[in-house]
Amino acid sequence: MSLLNLTLAVCKPHGSGGARHWMHILAEDGAKNGTWYHSTGGPHDPGQATPAPHGVVASSDINKVKASAQKIQAKFCQRYCVDVLGDLERKGLVPAVTYDTCIAAMEVDPYSRTARQS
């Protein structure tokens, strides 16, 4: 059984004041390629993202990760990533503090009604 790293990739902001794009990457240790799980387009250059490791997943559990990513409704990418982590946490695939840590790091959703009224 091989292990896959589950990483939250935090991309550089698009211009001043913009929220950063987040996505999950599932890949073997040291791999240059992996599977991206995100609600919208990601970076065009791997150097545009800062990795934040969240755990290691057995390759036998890859379908559980995929199921979580597919079942969460598409939305603001940071909220999507947090919700996927919450589902993975409920399945016991990531440490129990992962959801709380990531929700605390979320930036203002530029698509929310509150952000548009500012």
Explain the overall architecture.
It is a single chain. α1 (62-71) crosses α2. A 4-stranded antiparallel beta sheet has the order 3-2-1-4, with helices on one face. The chain has one domain (3-117). It is an alpha+beta fold and 118 residues long. The model has no long low-confidence stretch (mean pLDDT 85). It is built from 4 helices and 4 strands; from the N terminus they run ββββαααα.
Largest sheet, spatial ordering of strands: 3-2-1-4
* Tally of separate helices: 4
* CA-based shape: globular
Order of helices and strands: EEEEHHHH
What is the count of β-strands? Answer: 4
The major sheet is characterized as: 4 strands, antiparallel
Strand content: 15-25%
What's the arrangement of secondary structure elements?
Layout lengths: L2 E9 L10 E7 L6 E3 L11 E10 L3 H10 L5 H14 L7 H8 L7 H5 L1
Antiparallel strand pairs: 1-2, 1-4, 2-3
Features:
118 residues; 4-stranded antiparallel beta sheet; 4 helices; single chain; alpha+beta; globular
